[in-house]
User: What shape does this take?
Amino acid sequence: MAMSTSDHYFSSQPTSEHDETTHRIIVRKLEMLLAGDRGVFNKGELDWGTRVLIENAAVPSGGVLLDLGCGSGAIAVALAKLRPDAEVWAVDVNERAIAVTRRTVELNALTNVKVALAHDVPADLRFDGIWSNPPIRIGKDALHELLGHWLNRLADGGSAVLVVHKNLGSDSLAQWLVSQSFAVVRVSSKQGYRVLRVTRT
Ligand SMILES: C[S@@+](CC[C@H](N)C(=O)[O-])C[C@H]1O[C@@H](n2cnc3c(N)ncnc32)[C@H](O)[C@@H]1O
Assistant: This one.
């Protein structure tokens, strides 16, 4: 059997058979190799929303950056290449995504990316910048809990950028963030993908 029907890209331990891939992609004039595997978001192909995020978000300043929900690691690699002086954390709940992102990091010979399961990130670590194509499909309550947790770990002056398609609730997510005392600005909108910049007020 190739695929378990209970597998989601956000399963912590996908059980589907492995099918490792490697894709060469170019985004924001950055060339990168992207590892992939079955049971990991988009199986190593660059998601269109992720491309919109990488190409339209301002490069974060500060020394500690986070790719929240790293999947195959495309965002972490982009951050690490755009900011070679920064320490980039690539975090996911899916153990297979962690293994795939480690392979992506090796393929790109990067030394400034730390790859970790979400619960292994030091509790006192704060982030100057967070970039995420967040896992909308985990459901609204779980998504709010996830974003509430990580956005409250922004360092003073830090900001997050999130890409969410309008058909997947970008506008209601922005409203919820405002209700949680975050400031939200739509910095870009392409083919229905909204890029939201989020800061603490
Ligand atoms: C939409 S995918 C984006 C993957 C990758 N960043 C990209 O842009 O291709 C969202 C990712 O969030 C991860 N995720 C789901 N729940 C999570 C959680 N509680 N903590 C961290 N990551 C989570 C999923 O496993 C998935 O890899």
Observations:
- Strands lie at 21-27, 30-36, 64-68, 87-92, 113-117, 127-132, 154-165, 182-190, 193-200.
